[in-house]
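Blinded run. Sample ID left blank on purpose so nobody reads anything into the name before looking at the predicted structure. Input follows.
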Amino acid sequence: MDPYLDLTKSQYLEFMKFDIEEKFQMLNLLKFVDKVPGTELTGIQQYKEYMKAVMPFFFEAEAKVIYDGKPYFTLIGPSEYLEWDKVLIIEYATKGQFINMISSPDYPGELRKKALADSRLILCTNK
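Blinded prediction complete.
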């Protein structure tokens, strides 16, 4: 199966049509590469660099980290395999601020992509 590292055009268009006025959360499920090609960094180290670089964008978008943790074992599901290295939940104040953030030409999205072998980004609300 191909890894998922970025929005597809159809996912972006579907998100644009999604009616949401209130705060929402993005559940990030992250699997890191062992080594970032062309560097001496691990995927975990590269992702830390991404998080440092993205913090001003989070501040501007009024986003905040709600949860940042490492999964250790599975209670329901196959116990012999744990797919994700990190679980991250980011809360965004508005859809517009999120779109402005990820659309900025200076947004450090490439740092994120280089760090990851696979990922999921799942929009969650209290609706």
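Unblinding after everyone has recorded impressions. The first strand starts at residue 24 and ends at 32.
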